[in-house]
Amino acid sequence: MPGIRAPSDYSEEPPRHPCLKINAKEPFNAEPPRSNLISSYVTPVDLFYKRNHGPIPVVEDIESYSVSVTALQGNTRALFIKDIRKLQKHTVVATLQCAGNRRTAMSKTKTVRGVGWDIAAIGNAVWSGAKLADVLEQLGIPKYTNVTSSGGKHVEFVSIDKCKEENGGPYKASIPLIQATNPEADVLLAYEMNGQTLKRDHGYPLRVIVPGVIGARSVKWLDSMNIIAEECQGFFMQKDYKMFPPSVNWDNIDWSTRRPQHDFPVQCAICSLEDVSMVKHGKVNIKGYAVSGGGRGIERVDVSIDGGKSWVEASRYQRIGVPYVADDANCDKWAWVFFEAEADITHGAEIVAKAVDTAANVQPENVEVIWNLRGILNTSWHRVHVKVGHSNM
Ligand SMILES: Nc1nc2c(c(=O)[nH]1)N[C@H]1C(S)=C(S)[C@@H](COP(=O)(O)O)O[C@H]1N2
Ligand SMILES: [Mo]
């Protein structure tokens, strides 16, 4: 692997923002405080959640770094950064969300396995790079290809980081070829985040961005791409990031019965309040994010201050002062929206938010009904408690 190196320990980690809440140190997993998350529509890079399964790779020589691409029965081609930069540069605003977002709350129902996350394992960034559909077209695979002449149906992305789940091997994942070759799916090989060269934590020099899909498929530090007949057989596709029913436990689990999770479901969370907040008698600001997978927009966000008995509709926006309309050509279809409502609070209350997407999918009322042993996709109504007192928060 010329140009890039994967350390086997944590002695070469990049610097990180002191505000981040660290959920695991090695590998480094951290998220911003709730209030920081909603302070801007585009999440600043240093506050963007960091989700890793091994030590962060080190680029030693960017000129010699390349991605090797192999098709079934085909030759291997090397793609250098300069080749990728030669292709048209596309910019996509997309929200990345870890499937483990809100896991800590799910573990309160019954223990789950995995890194604990509050509600900020999510972020919205401006990603720039080449469209994967253009890259593949240049390599001889036309746009909107389902299957290649040699039977290729999936594109596998392989990194170089050393993950213990892969017994020291690299992180990998795949997406269907039809999504990879569809220019409207906006899958990117990204080299910039928020207008700057990618940071090491986020996949420098090159990462995949798969909009509308759980973060696990957006492979960082891309080392090779393979056009393959079956989906990737790696740990994170076959033995993790699958959604099981509440009846499945570690004694009766059969991983082969479920498909790898792909799109994420509709989600929202209140970020202006902690799980329990002291507020002053009077107006309380209820503000947070809402997002859905698969390019579905947010149709509505409902807010309740009586635990879900009665509801009001929150206002929604992406850009300050511009009301959000889910099917407006100017909306960022892969990006979150912020919602805001004001409530008069005179006594202790349970405040709840739930979002509805453009397909009318709605978040489930309780976490119990979606509990799963790996603690993924907790999209239950987000509930916080306020107590009225004299100090603010
Ligand atoms: N090579 C590699 N890619 C990876 C991961 C990883 O550990 N190694 N983690 C995945 C997961 S689970 C998520 S949620 C996102 C997190 O991206 P971020 O750290 O840029 O927020 O990267 C994905 N890509
Ligand atoms: Mo993730």
Automatic annotation (TrEMBL):
EC number(s) stated in the UniProt entry for this protein: 1.8.3.1
GO CC terms: mitochondrion
InterPro entries assigned: Ig_E-set, MoCF_OxRdtse_dimer, Mopterin_OxRdtase_euk, OxRdtase_Mopterin-bd_dom, OxRdtase_Mopterin-bd_sf
Highest rank taxon of the organism: Eukaryota
Enzyme class (EC, first level): oxidoreductase
Any one of the GO BP annotations: sulfur compound metabolic process
Pathway assigned to this chain's UniProt record: Energy metabolism; sulfur metabolism; Sulfur metabolism
Cofactor (UniProt): Mo-molybdopterin
Keywords associated with the record: Metal-binding, Molybdenum, Oxidoreductase
Protein name per its UniProtKB record: Sulfite oxidase
Biological source species: Lithospermum erythrorhizon
Lineage of producing organism: Eukaryota, Viridiplantae, Streptophyta, Embryophyta, Tracheophyta
